[in-house]
């Protein structure tokens, strides 16, 4: 945080303390400072690493003794990734030494005075004022002078000011790349948890053709791992991989362990995608002749057990290596083995592992019973699976959500209607959450048995207790079409299409097309056909033949689908503008004039999870074929990109300049209610107080004021604040209510409550990266700050 007064933390170090003297006539300076005669510095000034408290402190283990680390690993507890051995050492590797001149070495007294004054005053100022002061010194200041000022800011632990001074230096015409300074600025920023600023300096070093120092790689990985919720795990893995492949460095053991722990801290369904990275970390530990922790073996076996195709040979090799290392297989490993064996239907190995688990004498986990249920379901013995469920209760192991899901699914697939319904009632009465998978299992059962009345009742119950999704509506739509109730089916399909939370897909469109064809309503069938052609959905041959024969009777011919001229409709354009205002990125393609839109959503945000599915459905015709063939919404990735297309060039030119986000000059004309709604859902948050805040990606104060003036024409009064590199537009009190009334018709239903208090997910990087700068809407920025 910028200091309140220059005398607090803004004052220079003891070597720069001075007495005041009459001022000299140079621009923008208060009284000149005169250096004291006594010499307090050594002949060269070496920069020490700051020891300020930071967000990384919990991950820091103050030790440089690697042998001691390995001994501690042997004494660690048996739990998965427990103990100090998994803590990351922040100062494990040293940065290149950075030296700057001593002020007394400068022959000109006026230069010493000016540099001393800058060291005293600059840390107390915010971004725009600091830049204006530095701009006023261009006639005399050199890179060495400015480097001294940046180093002083690092020494007094004002890393924000150091970064601003460094950013100003690199924009000057006399700038020559200083690897040691860039390394030290990046390291200090990462230690303080300012990962975006650190990454900016890191990328600049790479663009200069230099390999960043080992310390920069190490500390940046630690900083990414320290981000709450594991939102930057992918970035941490990228830097870790570059550290080894590009830098040729050998990370310390604690860095390997901490990154591995982050990979296996995800749920099983998510962690299974991290297998290659986990194996890469294990390979690096082994090839570096470091000790492999027993929980690394356990974690690898755990990830392998969740794979769709089980690699028995690899699991056996890991078990053998674990045995040679002198580690016993814990209950966690045994459960992972049961999961792997049960997926393959191996009764002998599963039961043998189960008996070993019983002999261990520990508390039996519910997951072990679930593995046995799945095993006997695969071997065609569903009633034995039911016995496993009852045995779990008899052993005082309380059934959890996953066990209810599994047993209801098994009973539904075996068509044991009464048992499935009884278990479902028991599940509902337990007041556990996540009832949807169990409801879907029942509805699939009723659909297979043509019990449409019970299916409709279950659909209604599910709507009362769960958040609706596309699968639920699609099953009900199929039931209505089979009954021949096309009118009701048309109503449900229209509700799906209008409700952005649910949406339609190829399967629902094919069901509706089949319904119209069975009712011989060829005009409406043709409209569905046109929609499917536009969205590039696959069309069954038999449905196309029926449509052609039906139109021929009416003397009309349906032509085979032609290549559709790709063009964003009005809704897609407004959605894209709202997302771009919130921070969505567009990148240029190798082909000139062609661009790609990169959609990126936060995994720990419920609002972004809903928005991800909706955006995927709305832009499905613009996605590559590999991103369009998902059977389940849960398979949709949190990051996906469009195909390269020239139609995105307009938005790239308007919202980006030289790769940096800006605000279009006509943005105030594009702020429709739908644009504001998607801006809010993607880059906004509604606070507990009821106030609404929107993050502005890119732009300066002038362009933000155009947005504010446009909102005021809609009777919306708002405030503007700057935090770091981002502006934030806030709607306090009654203005938030007025803003909500405008956007509410376009806000997705399930996003209404999810956006509450998710500021950690939306714009969190800006909040975390820039808690020092705060300016109101009256602050004007000098034109030179945009250079």
Automatic annotation (TrEMBL):
Pfam family of the protein (one): PPR_3
Keywords assigned by UniProt, alphabetized: Chloroplast, mRNA processing, mRNA splicing, Plastid, Repeat, Transit peptide
Residue spans of biased composition, Acidic residues class: 62-76
Chief subcellular location: plastid
GO biological process, one term: Group II intron splicing
PPR repeats: 178-212, 365-399, 469-503, 505-539
Residues annotated as domain Homing endonuclease LAGLIDADG: 573-739
Domain of life (superkingdom): Eukaryota
Record region (Disordered): 59-78, 761-787
GO molecular function: endonuclease activity
InterPro entries: Chloro/Mito_RNA_Process, Homing_endonucl, LAGLIDADG_dom, PPR_rpt, TPR-like_helical_dom_sf
UniProt feature, compositional bias: Basic and acidic residues: 766-787
GO cellular component: chloroplast
Subcellular localization(s) per the UniProt record: Plastid, Chloroplast
Protein family: Belongs to the PPR family. P subfamily.
Protein name: Protein ORGANELLE TRANSCRIPT PROCESSING 51
Organism whose genome encodes this protein: Digitaria exilis
Lineage: Eukaryota, Viridiplantae, Streptophyta, Embryophyta, Tracheophyta
């Amino acid at each position: 945080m910028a200091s309140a007064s220059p005398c607090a933390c803004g004052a220079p170090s003891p070597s720069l303390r001075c007495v005041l003297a009459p001022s000299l006539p140079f621009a923008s300076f208060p009284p000149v400072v005169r250096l004291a005669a006594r010499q307090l510095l050594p002949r060269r000034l070496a920069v020490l690493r700051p020891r300020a408290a930071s967000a990384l402190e919990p991950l820091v283990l103050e030790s440089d003794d690697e042998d001691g680390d390995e001994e501690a690993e042997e004494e660690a507890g048996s739990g998965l990734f427990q103990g100090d051995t998994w803590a990351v050492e922040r100062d494990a590797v040293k940065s290149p030494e950075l030296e700057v001149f001593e002020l007394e070495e400068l022959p000109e007294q006026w230069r010493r005075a000016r540099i001393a004054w800058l060291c005293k005053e600059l840390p107390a100022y915010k971004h725009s004022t600091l830049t204006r002061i530095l701009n006023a010194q261009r006639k005399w200041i050199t890179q060495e002078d400015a480097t001294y000022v940046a180093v002083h800011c690092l020494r007094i632990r004002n890393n924000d000011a150091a970064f601003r001074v460094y950013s100003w230096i690199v924009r000057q015409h006399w700038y020559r790349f200083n690897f040691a300074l860039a390394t030290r600025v990046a390291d200090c920023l990462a230690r303080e948890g300012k990962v975006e600023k650190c990454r900016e300096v890191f990328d600049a070093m790479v663009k200069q053709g230099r390999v960043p120092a080992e310390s920069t790689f190490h500390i940046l990985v630690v900083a990414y791992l320290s981000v709450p919720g594991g939102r930057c795990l992918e970035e941490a893995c990228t830097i870790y991989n570059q550290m080894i492949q590009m830098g040729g460095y050998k990370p310390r053991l604690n860095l390997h362990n901490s990154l591995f722990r982050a990979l296996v801290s995800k749920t099983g369904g998510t962690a299974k995608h991290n297998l290659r990275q986990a194996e890469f970390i294990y390979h690096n530990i082994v090839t570096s002749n470091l000790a492999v922790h027993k929980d690394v073996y356990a974690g690898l076996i755990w990830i392998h057990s969740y794979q769709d195709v089980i690699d028995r040979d690899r699991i056996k090799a890991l078990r053998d290596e674990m045995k040679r290392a002198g580690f016993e297989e814990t209950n966690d490993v045994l459960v992972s083995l049961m999961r792997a064996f049960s997926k393959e239907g191996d009764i002998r190995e599963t039961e043998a592992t189960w008996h070993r688990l019983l002999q261990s004498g520990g508390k039996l986990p519910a997951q072990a019973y679930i593995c046995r249920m799945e095993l006997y379901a695969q071997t065609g013995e569903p009633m034995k699976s039911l016995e496993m469920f009852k045995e779990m209760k008899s052993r005082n192991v309380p059934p959890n959500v996953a066990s209810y899901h599994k047993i209801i699914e098994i009973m539904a697939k075996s068509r044991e209607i009464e048992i499935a319904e009884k278990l479902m009632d028991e599940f509902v009465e337990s007041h556990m959450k996540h009832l949807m998978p169990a409801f879907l299992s029942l509805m699939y059962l009723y659909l297979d048995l043509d019990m449409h009345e019970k299916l409709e009742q279950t659909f209604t119950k599910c709507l009362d207790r769960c958040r609706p999704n596309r699968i639920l509506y699609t099953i009900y739509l199929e039931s209505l079409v089979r009954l021949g109730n096309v009118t009701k089916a048309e109503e449900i399909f229209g509700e799906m299409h209008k409700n952005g939370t649910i949406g339609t897909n190829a399967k629902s469109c094919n069901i509706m097309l089949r319904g119209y064809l069975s009712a011989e309503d060829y005009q409406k069938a043709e409209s569905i056909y046109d929609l499917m052609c536009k969205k590039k959905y696959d069309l069954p041959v038999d449905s196309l033949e029926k449509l052609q024969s039906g139109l021929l009777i009416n003397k009309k011919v349906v032509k085979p689908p032609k290549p559709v001229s790709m063009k964003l409709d009005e809704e897609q354009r407004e959605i894209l503008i709202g997302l771009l205002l919130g921070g969505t990125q567009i990148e240029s393609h190798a082909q000139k004039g062609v661009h790609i839109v990169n959609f990126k959503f936060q995994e720990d945000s419920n609002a972004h999870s809903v928005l991800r599915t909706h955006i995927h459905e709305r832009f499905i015709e613009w996605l590559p074929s590999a991103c369009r063939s998902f059977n389940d919404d849960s398979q949709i990735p949190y990051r996906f990109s469009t195909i390269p297309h020239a139609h995105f060039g307009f938005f790239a030119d308007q919202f980006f300049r030289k790769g940096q986000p800006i605000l279009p000059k006509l943005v105030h004309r594009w702020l429709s209610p739908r644009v504001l709604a998607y801006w809010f859902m993607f880059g906004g948050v509604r606070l507990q107080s009821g106030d609404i805040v929107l993050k502005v990606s890119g732009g300066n104060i002038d362009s933000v004021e155009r947005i504010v003036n446009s909102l005021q024409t809609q009777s919306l009064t708002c405030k503007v604040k700057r935090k770091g590199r981002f502006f934030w537009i806030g709607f306090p009190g009654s203005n938030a209510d007025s803003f909500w009334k405008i956007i509410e018709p376009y806000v997705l239903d399930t996003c209404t409550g999810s956006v509450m208090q998710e500021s950690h997910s939306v714009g969190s990087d800006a909040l975390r990266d820039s808690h020092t700068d705060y300016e109101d809407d009256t602050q004007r920025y000098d034109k030179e700050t945009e250079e």
